[in-house]
Design goal:
Layout: H1 13-28, H2 32-35, H3 42-59, H4 63-70, H5 74-85
Helix pairs in contact: 1-3, 3-4, 3-5, 4-5
Length: 86
């Protein structure tokens, strides 16, 4: 039985998500630990919104997967995307 691809292999879904999160956190000067915590500061919330919109719209990553990585519910990710459109 063949082995599965490693999660840190370039091109895997996990690798893409981690790279986008790291890139946006560096741009916005947000700590990744703050991003996945329940902190509700405006700059952290904006970073979450940017990450969610980019991953879902540009890469087609499922809402549930994005929610797991940014520390919010699937419903919250859906609302972020809806508010970005409006």
């Amino acid at each position: 039985m063949p082995r599965q691809a490693r999660l840190d292999t370039p091109g895997t879904l996990h690798h893409v998500i981690v790279n986008i999160i790291q890139e946006i956190c560096d741009e916005r000067e947000v700590n990744i630990k703050e991003l996945s915590s329940v902190i509700r500061r405006l700059f952290v919330s904006k970073a979450r919104r940017i990450i969610a919109c980019r991953l879902v719209k540009d890469y087609g990553i499922p809402l549930s997967e994005v929610a797991r990585h940014v520390g919010v519910s699937t419903s919250a990710v859906s609302k972020m995307i809806d508010s970005e459109v409006n």
